[in-house]
Amino acid sequence: MEEFVRDCDWSTLGLRSAGWTPADGGWWSFASFSRGMRTDPKLSGRVTPVGRGAAEASYRQLGGGRLPAEAVLRTYFRHYEPFPTAPPLRLGPADAPDGFHEQRVYRVLFAKDLRADQLANLSAGWRTPAEDDPADQARGMPAADCG
Fold first, then answer.
1. Which of 43-47, 84-88, 93-97 is the most confident on average?
2. What is the three-state SS of 64-106?
3. DSSP designation for 135
4. How far apart are CA 110 and CA 49, in angstroms?
5. Cys-Cys crosslink for 62: which of 22, 53, 88, 105, Cβ 3.0 to 4.6 Å?
6. Is residue 70 within 8 Å of residue 76, measured between CB atoms?
7. Distance CA 51, CA 60 (A)
8. Region of poorest pLDDT, from 37-41, 85-89, 132-136
9. Cβ-contact 17, 31 below 8 angstroms
């Protein structure tokens, strides 16, 4: 299992992970496997992300019984993998539009190609403000309070 660690502005700071195998029934550090999933195409091709329901069904089928509660599962995270961080990439003018503290341009990266339905959902839910429409500018990304 994996959990992304988020900062107050929802940027990803790192990853916590733990693994379980039926052979010994114990939880172990999953850090090297997590890194391998992201760098080895053969390994990443064998892994399918699932939600809690499917994970619980697999855990039960493999003899683990009922998957522990979230609070208990988090105690199995023995390793934290920090991600490299950098200040926001500033593209364009440094001046913020009227009514804003700053202006940021975000580049969104995905681990794999999006399916057509995923791209359509993303496009429908996340519109880029039109530069020539002040009303559209006001609907920009929400600000984070990291102070």
1. 43-47
2. CCCCCCHHHHHCCCCEEEECCCCCCCCCCCCCCCCCCCCCCCC
3. H
4. 14
5. 22
6. no
7. 14
8. 132-136
9. yes
What is the phi-psi region of residue 13: left when phi exceeds 0, alpha when psi lies from -120 to 50, beta otherwise? Answer: alpha
> In this structure, what are the phi and psi dihedrals at residue 23, rounded to the nearest 5 degrees?
-55, -45
User: 103 near 97, Cβ under 8 Å?
Assistant: yes
What would you report as the CA-atom Rg of the chain, rounded to the nearest whole angstrom? Answer: 20
The two three-digit tokens of residue 30, written as one number: 């999953």
Q: Beta-strand (E) ranges in the chain?
A: 2-6, 12-20, 27-29, 79-82
- Alpha carbons 100 and 78: distance in angstroms, whole number: 41
> Is 1 within 8 Å of 14 (Cβ atoms)?
no
Could you tell me if 43 and 37 are in contact, meaning their C-beta atoms sit under 8 angstroms apart?
Answer: yes
Per residue in 34-63, pLDDT tens? 888 888 888 888 888 898 999 999 999 999
Residue 127: partners with Cβ closer than 8 Å, 6 or more residues away: 136, 139
